[in-house]
Amino acid sequence: MAKLSTPFAFLAGLVSYALGQAQEWGQCGGTGWTGATTCVTGTVCVVVNPYYSQCQPGTTTSAPSTTTTSSTTPSSTAGLNTLAKAAGKLYFGSATDNPELSDSAYVKILSNVKEFGQITPGNSMKWDATEPTRGTFTFTNGDVVANLAKANGQLLRGHNCVWHNQLPSWVSNGQFTAADLTSVIQNHCSTVVSHYKGQILRSYSWDVVNEPFNDDGTWRSDVFYNTLNSSYVSIALKAARAADPNAKLYINDYNIENSGAKATAMLNLVKQLIADGVPIDGVGFQSHFIVGSVPTSFQTVLEQFAALGLEVAITELDIRMTLPETDALLAQQAKDYESVVQACMNVEKCVGITIWDYTDKYSWVPSTFSGQGAALPWDSNLAIKPAYNGIVAALS
Ligand code: G3I
Question: E-assigned strands of the chain?
Answer without folding.
Answer: 21-22, 27-29, 38-39, 43-49, 52-57, 91-96, 118-121, 155-162, 203-210, 248-253, 282-285, 288-290, 311-322, 350-355, 372-373
